[in-house]
Amino acid sequence: MTEFSPLPKLPLTTESDDSSKIKARTCKPWFVLLIWRLIIELNKKGENATLSAISKIMTKRLSMARLEKKVKSALNDGLIAKSSEVYSITESDVGLFHEWYYRIQSVIRKKKLEKKDISEVLHLILQNVKSKFGSIVEKSELKNENELLVKHLPKLLCHPRFNFSNVEGKIKNDNYESLFEFEKDCKTIDYNLSVLYRPRSEISKESKRMCEFVKQQIENVNYCVECFVRQNDTNCKDWFSEACNPPHK
Fold first, then answer.
1. Whole-angstrom Cα distance, residue 103 to residue 159?
2. Is this entry keyworded Transmembrane helix (predicted)?
3. What CA–CA distance (Å, rounded) separates 19 from 204?
4. How far apart are CA 18 and CA 176, in angstroms?
5. Which of 131, 167, 199, 211 has fewest C-beta within 10 Å?
6. Cα gap 122→143, rounded to integer Å
7. 80 and 39 in contact (C-beta within 8 Å)?
8. Rg of the chain's alpha carbons, rounded to an integer?
């Protein structure tokens, strides 16, 4: 039998050059978030977060057998701790140094825009996103989440604090080199929401629609940036009657 030489170690993600072996997690991140939320709620009431107390709240969602299995997975992943049958959130500061997915980037050929033009276009796209997907913009800020819960999110996400406020700041500071970078940031926010609220949740579905909307907006820009800017200018009511440079044939 032919022996094959082992493959060289490769970086796990574009975020890090770390190629060391890692232990894969088995528990779903949205379940971990749910358990953390229940632990915090029970502690606020002065109750111990035992499996029995958790199961009383979770009986409509999971059977006892499935709940025990998922809690054991979260325990093995080091995301919760257990002492005298009482569960708590681990106080470890160890964050997530690799992502649970691969970034796939495709080459996009389009008209070269100056940085100032990119910022102007992205400002318009962001306003359209805020107008059409306000609930997703608000959800990305995690404003309604418990601060203790938010504190532990680096254990589940590489960029837990990345939201549309960060995106707006990058636009104002002319940080974007291309429209693709903006689209990638929107997908990062979509990924965060899918991880935290499960891929098939209404939040995740709306977030996916937001990404499709952003993609369509960028396509419109690529067709004609002048038409896009005029179309989104509230002061330009007859934008379609103005000739672009060069004019459309």
1. 14
2. no
3. 31
4. 26
5. 131
6. 24
7. yes
8. 23
Architecture of the domain defined by 115-241: Up-down Bundle (1.20)
- As a whole number of angstroms, the distance between CA 24 and CA 11 comes to 16
- Contacts of 156-159 with CB under 8 Å at 24 or more apart are 156/29, 156/32, 156/33, 156/79, 156/96, 156/195, 156/196, 157/29, 157/96, 157/192, 157/195, 157/196, 158/15, 158/95, 158/96, 158/97, 158/98, 158/99, 159/188, 159/192
Q: Note the pLDDT tens digit of each residue in 173-190.
A: 999 999 999 999 999 999
Residue ranges per structural domain of the chain: 9-99, 115-241
* Exposure string for 165-190, b = 16+ CB within 10 A, e = fewer: ebbbebbeeeebebbeebbebbbbbb
Residues in the chain: 249
> Quick one: angle between helices 64-76 and 29-44, nearest 10?
100
CA angle 46, 62, 144 (to 5 degrees): 50
Which has the closest alpha carbon to 117: 56, 184, 179?
179
Query: For residue range 70-126, what is the model confidence (pLDDT) as tens digits?
Result: 888 888 888 889 989 999 998 876 555 544 444 434 333 345 788 888 999 999 999
Q: Residue 247, preceding bond cis, omega within 30 degrees?
A: no
- Topology match between the domains 9-99 and 115-241: no
Q: Does domain 9-99 have CATH number 1.10.10.10?
A: yes
Could you tell me the pTM of the whole model?
Answer: 0.69
